[in-house]
Amino acid sequence: MMRKRTKYGRYALNVFAGLGLVYLFAPIFFIVAFSFNKPKGNFNIAWQSFTFDNWLHPFAEQSLTHALWKSLEIAAVSTFVSTILGSLIAVALSRYKFRGSEGINLFLVLPLTTPEIVLGSSLATLFLGQNFIDFGMTTIIIAHIMFQVSFVALTVRARIRGFDWTLEQAAQDLGATPIRTFMKVTFPLILPGILAAALLAFALSIDDFIITFFNSGPVQTFPLQIYGASRVRIPPQINVLASMILFLSVAILMTGTIAGMRKSAEKQATAKKFKLLHRK
Amino acid sequence: MTETVVRKNRIARNADRVGMGAMIIASVCLVALGAHWVIGPMVSVVVLALFLVLGSVLGLAVKGGPEARRLLAPYGLLKPGMLWLALFFIAPVWSLLRISLSTKESRFSVQYNFSWAFQNYSTAFRDFGKQFEHAFVYAAIATVLTILIGYPLAYVIAFRGGKYKNILLGLVVIPFFTSYLIRTIAWSTILADRGIVVRVLHAVGLENVFEWMHIMDNGKLLNTPAAVIGGLTYNFLPFMLLPIYVSLEKIDTNLVNAAGDLYSSASRAFRKVVFPLSIPGVFAGTLLTFIPAAGDFVNAQFLGNPNTTMIGNSIQDQFLKQNNYPVASAMAAVLMVSIATLVLLYTRIFGTEDLA
Predict the structure, then answer these.
(1) Neighbouring C-alpha atoms within 13 Å toward the C-beta of B354
(2) What is the C-alpha separation between A12 and A109, in angstroms, rounded?
(3) Do A24 and B237 touch (CB under 8 A)?
(4) Beta bridge partners of B229
(5) In this complex, is the C-beta atom of B75 within 8 Å of any C-beta atom belonging to chain A?
(6) In chain A, which ranges are continuous DSSP H helix?
(7) CATH class of B119-350
């Protein structure tokens, strides 16, 4: 009796999880489906008829395409800078024991526990009171780097937490210069963590709306363009570009997962071989 | 001669103090400059101090020998990022607080005079009390909902995913690779008055139940408080699910088996073993969900109506449309301080040391 009940409980939970996945994908299904819609009028929100037109002309909405390029440009620059700044912090925190490291750890969490609207509006008050920089690309990039640095530092720190820093000493004992040690030993080993953090920072920058909204001036990024246009028109190209970004990210995610699986499989295989050798 | 050597050694031995002190002084200089705390000729004095401090640390690193360099190294690595955060995170908060206590010269002026103008705060509370209430209530309900949806999902993936674990986790994350705004607009299409959900509910006859539960309002689903809360729940679900997953994944399944071997029922094993071990995940997830949800204005804008606006909508409107920076800053400051207070209280009560 008891057994049966727990079995039903098991089923119920799995069904709930399945429904959860359906819920997660509901809007995604709509976004992709409506990229094949031929809308009547300016708003692509009611289903009319199936067409490939939008996919054949994904860049037909010039202002949208332009905004997407701007977003990519901003994300590239801000990710580059924030990855360097954040990784340096992460290396300092995990490589060295030093006075004040706990304070730094706490300080790094602060930007993450501050609502975006506060970050955005406060940064805008800073830029309002000066005449060095106008609102535009520069202010957006500064804002993005500001919130990316913490994310990068925490991600890299988590990834290199178990790193064996004595390897550096070993390299130096074998006569490597500090620079050579860094290039040949340290950097290759912490690179995967840095790349993961950079990918996260890039995604955050591309999708950021609230902070950018306060600091953009006349510049239109992809989310800002969608926001501004959504009152007058929602062209199907929005759905096409969104689906493209989605498929591209899924492809990147999948190559990453597959590479990771292959690597762990290889590791297991070598470990097995090693064991077999020793058994003989 | 020997005296100077001894002194030099003492500085070299305490190089870490010098490094930390230099970092703090440089940060304070940048905050003062950025927030217009200092004006006129004082600016050049502060700039000079900034360069002097950084220069002297550089000098110590060059002259101080390997021991001093080793002690200085972490601060050198920290400095670029920390100074960036000082100038573009701390200084802005400072200037936000200053503007929130300033008055405008005239309605269209861009000049502000700092005058301890606390009336901005009373205006913020008087005119936007409702919006504060909405922000905190909606965000709290959405956070509870993300736990109710996210926890079972994370549980199933972590304990029953088997070799599909990574794929399932990928499936959970994939929807969030589309733009935040587009997702929210898609929800407004789904929940629209003649949209699929309303029609299905009508056909099945659940409309009355939903009306009774105050989820629907006169046959409408879109532009109700429920839609705003639903949007918040959807958009911040991964911030709850992923930390819970991480903490569940770490649990040694042998512990659960041991509980079973000791004649614990499955539900009791969950209550006594699994759930307590997953609390750090729920804790982190709650912060990561509640904080951005309370400051959000996108969901209220696309899924709500003029009576469901949250404090984010008001800050955005006062700041960017009305150019009423003092009151907008006062609202942002109140939001920041109340969230910080809530986080501190929450950490005190449920706290785990491993927040990050």
Answers:
(1) 9
(2) 38
(3) yes
(4) none
(5) yes
(6) 2-34, 53-56, 62-95, 101-109, 116-128, 137-159, 166-173, 178-181, 187-207, 210-215, 222-229, 236-279
(7) mainly alpha
What tens-digit pLDDT sequence spans chain A (280 residues)? 344 456 676 788 889 999 999 999 999 999 998 889 888 777 777 777 888 888 888 888 888 999 999 999 999 999 999 999 999 999 999 888 888 888 898 899 899 889 999 999 999 999 987 778 889 999 999 999 999 999 999 999 988 877 788 888 888 888 888 888 888 888 888 898 899 899 989 989 999 999 999 999 899 999 999 998 888 888 888 889 999 988 988 888 788 777 777 777 777 777 777 776 666 5
Is B288 an interface residue toward A (CB < 8 Å)? yes
C-alpha span between B287 and B281 (Å, rounded): 10
Strand, helix or coil for residue B74? helix
CA distance A55 to B272: 54
Decide if B119 contacts B101 (C-beta within 8 A).
no
Residue A211 identity: I
CATH architecture of A62-234: Orthogonal Bundle (1.10)
User: Do B134 and B308 form a contact (C-beta atoms < 8 A)?
Assistant: yes
Q: Within an 8 Å CB–CB cutoff, is residue B228 touching chain A?
A: no
Residue contact A250–B85, C-beta within 8 A: no
Which among A145, A147, A142, A163 is positioned nearest to A93, based on CA atoms? Answer: A163
CA angle, residues A93, A95, A98, in degrees to nearest 5: 60
Confidence (pTM): 0.88
What residues of chain A, 29 to 48, have a C-beta less than 8 Å from chain B?
A: 30-31, 34, 45-46
DSSP A264: H
CA dihedral in degrees (B77, B80, B83, B87; nearest 10)? -160
In chain B, where are the structural domains located? 2-100, 119-350
